[in-house]
What we know:
The complex is a heterodimer of chains A (239) and B (307).
Chain A: H1 2-12, H2 15-38, H3 41-44, H4 54-74, H5 77-84, H6 88-126, H7 132-159, H8 163-176, H9 193-201, H10 210-234
Helix pairs in contact in A: 1-6, 2-4, 2-6, 4-5, 4-6, 4-7, 4-8, 6-7, 6-10, 7-8, 7-10, 9-10
Chain B: E1 4-13, E2 16-26, E3 31-35, H1 42-49, E4 57-62, H2 73-76, E5 77-80, H3 92-102, H4 107-116, H5 132-144, E6 150-154, H6 162-177, E7 181-186, H7 189-193, E8 198-203, E9 206-212, H8 213-218, E10 225-230, H9 233-242, E11 246-249, E12 255-258, H10 262-272, E13 276-281, H11 285-294
Parallel strand pairs in B: 3-7, 3-8, 5-6, 6-7
Antiparallel strand pairs in B: 1-2, 1-4, 8-9, 10-12, 10-13, 11-12
Amino acid sequence: MNLLRSEWIKLWSVRTTWTMLGIGLLAEALFAGLYVGLAPLDEIGSLEQVETGTGLLLVLSLVLGVLIVTTEFRHGTASSTFLVTPRRWPVLMAKLAVALGVGLLAGLAFVLVNGGLALPLLESREGSLPAAGDIASVYAGVVVSLGLICAFGYGVGTIVRNQVGAILAAIAFFFILSPLPELLPGSIGDYFPAQAIGSLHGTEGDNLGQIAGGLVLSAWVLGLVTIGTALVCRRDVSE
Amino acid sequence: MAELEVRNLTKRYGGTLAVDDVSFEVGAGRVTGFLGPNGAGKTTTMRALLGLLRPTRGEALVDGQPPAQMSDPLRTIGAALEATAFHPGRSGRGHLRTLASAARIPRSRVEEVLALVELEGAAGRRVKGYSLGMRQRLALAAALLGDPRILILDEPANGLDPQGMRWLRDMLRAQAAEGRTVLVSSHVLSEVSQTAEDLILIRSGKLVSQTTLAEFTAAGTSTGSVRVRAARLDELATGLAEAGGNVSRDEDGALLVSGLAGERIGETALRLGVALHELAPQRSSLEERFLEVMGEDGDADPGEGAA
Lengths: 239, 307
């Protein structure tokens, strides 16, 4: 518990965290407002408008997850952290929990902004809303995906020590390479992280379904974190 | 059992041996100076003692145990490392609070150590704006946070102003007097010669000697020389030579006298009725001895082992 507290304080005692989440939510608000408010109605379609603007927030959560671990090595605070707690894996588990936590929190903030802005706008234009249950399941998918993508970034950060390298690797893996799996035969592509997020949000036609999408993304996180934890526990801390 | 012990410690980074088969013990109740040129392997040895890196061979022990097995690390060992770094965007107080909360240390203790290192005024500011001296103080505050029995400080005097150095010396002495174990590294002898009783000398990753300051000084072969200028220099030179001094001239024409203490030179001048214009001890014998042991310029070749 004390490690969790310590990591939580670490996260919120730098401006980066506040700035990144603030920008993400502001962008989400702008995008949701402009898109839902101004786009032609027939383009808005059924449920897609509910999750408008998650893109940037996903990227920022991913990067924030990377930073949770790489800043410690970049600025040399890893030394003091592991002096206080020489057994490293509990520290790493606390960081994983914090990554999940801040991602979920970003998700909840998203729900507040989206629900408070996009939904009323949509209702005023269309006169009606999608079924409450559908909206709730999309929201749940977005919240869980933000938590998991932040943990995914954290996992990449434990493996790739260099901060810039880790951020680029995480973004490349998630977003730039994401069209590639579409070219793969069968449904293999559905098991890639970006596609799993699509499934998790439950708004893109052909996919695994929300639960399976969430499990696939969790499996990615578990794999990365297992490898990363083993690496960090073995490495010398000489920064 | 020694509080800190290094046994046949060897650490290899790629092709370089940063530390090569070093063994020593550090006991409680005194300040131990860990001396060597930059790149001699001091930091590597200290990091091994803190469990931050794995020895290639040998071991580093705290209370006879590997450091990773300490049950209450922050209350056992406090450390300030040379490269001790902080997140530039976090305040000094924020840095200490993260450490305190991880070790279940109350927040009031954070304020205590901030006061102790005289950093209260800047504690709320981001570390980005700190001077080197302020960072050193913050690192010391972090080391003292758990009120530890053992202190490991890597080049703590770097960047401190004269007042800060004096404060540091007093603090180290006080800590040792309370029965704590204090290991403090430096590449400058004068920084530790006023506080350390024990000395560990290391060069190019190898232990040169473990000794006490008294033994180290006594074993010196060369004594310091004194630069002398006076009204009737030739007369004084003769007098000093008769008194047993070894007299030569430096490039400015002043006398360089070795083998005679400053007091004797002054007395000789008085006896001869010669007015002294300058009486300046050159290097202290201690420093001369240190350079003798460490090699003349005190800095290792850059290629010889990483820090």
